Amino acid sequence: MMILDGGMGQELVARAGGATDMWSLQALFDAPEMVRDVHDEFFAAGAEVATTNTYMTLPDRLDPKGLGAQLEPLTHAACRLAVAARDAHGSGLVAGSIGPLGFSYQPDKCPPAAEAAEVYARMARLHQPYVDVHLLETMSSVDQARGGLMGVGVTGKPVWVAMSVDDTDGTKLRSGEPLVDVLPLLQEYKPQGVFINCSLPEAVTQGLGLLSDYDGEVGAYANGFAGIHSDFTTIHATADVLEKRTDLGPAAYLKFAKQWAAIGATIVGGCCEVGPAHIAALTAHFKGA
């Protein structure tokens, strides 16, 4: 079992004392040392992967604010922080996070695959000197995943793709499409790993079995939100409208991870609201340390 890290964005929000519409990206402007601290704490908890704080470093997040020129330096800075943390730890992988264009959980706002692929390819090239694997996160429709896979393939590095499923029915993507509709796409592009991410752990458990026969790594990393609020639908929405669950401490989260392992997961970790203590619990169980 490989242990991923947990959710960078909400850890940064908690430490900063509040959310902005820039979410995890804000820390790269205000407190990059905080990003490094979070990476270090996840490694100390047993994580074997540092996920770069680049989920939000996308043109459609920066351009509307007149910050497009900051895309490349911010991306390089975030990648260097993850690499430095990995190197200080002495082992592990660096996964280059690339979030969904449009907005999280809103695949209808993403450009069509061919157009989106150009942006994803640009991001992959920026990550290429630093990362061991490209990680497409929170892909919420088949077409959104297609655009990501088309784009990041330009570097030749391994690719992981993480699909986000409906919180009330984990057999469906957030687009409403059946999760199994992504299987032909996976067979076409053959990413090294496929995950379910940033959904309720109950929904992850529902959907994971539909991917368990994939000929590659299969994994899961759920979020700790109570659900996705109806107001969280635009690119400038802030994460403080999303309520944190009170029943998903490290022990409770581990119970779900055990279910995922029994279904066939070979990589587990955490997404939003899953912190170092949760990762430590996964490490203690799966690694005996």
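Above is the first protein from milestone M3; the second protein from the same milestone is given next.
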Amino acid sequence: MSSERATSGGLPVGPAGPYAPVPYRVRSRTEETADIATLVLAPVDGAVTPSSAPGQFNMLYAFGIGEAAISISGAPDGALVHTVQALGATSRALFAAPPGSCVGVRGPYGNGWPLERAVGRDVVLAAGGLGLPPLRPLLYRLLAERERFGRIEVVYGARTPKSLVFYEEIQRWRARSDLRFQVTVDAAGRDWYGDVGVVTTRLPDARFDPANTVAFVCGPEVMMRFTAKALLERGVPAEAIFLSMERNMKCAVGFCGHCQFGPEFVCRDGPVLPYARIAPYLGVREL
């Protein structure tokens, strides 16, 4: 059987196998901060973008450089949207990809946020740093089906005001009457009139019924660990807290072992995992 692939404009079209990236064109690029950009992607061959669940991720491939796991940050079943921070060689290339350029995509992979657990209950979304993009599709769903949920509290923390992503959209969310969106930063100058402090400093002011709340948390592991602890202290049951883990994912199917976290493989068993299941491993050094 031939392994050759059809081409379109010199680019391969369609996967040669389950691990081959499908070419996507960068339709638009929005620079959120100095090192974070949001890319809207469309298939080169005009095919329909596979549907995804809030919380899932894709493997994005910078041709000739490498591949990285990036959470989906757009509306489910809409355009394929990814928010990328320039950290390593691959993510720097993806961050800088201009409109019209081509990247590879395979996925979606992983477990999403268990939205059905929140029906009829209050919902808390807690995001730290680049933890807001993986929660953004979930917030879209919550607002699209607003009547199915109780109070919605969002707490978003960043290092500085210049580190905030989706700034204009946040202003629209904050203007709504059917959710409460708190923003805080670790440090700021005199031109910042908002809250200063880590995410946990805003949780005491969040309005929800702890016994009837589901919490979804995404951010650096230390932030998630302390946020989960603060939620527990407020009375939210451990089984009602869910974290999105970020580990060094390479294969996305639990084969290579790079993302093993205790008995779990983050790419296969996560990235969204129940806090009650992984709590014993969150404080273990070098795990």
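Note on the second protein: The chain has two domains: 7-109, 115-282.
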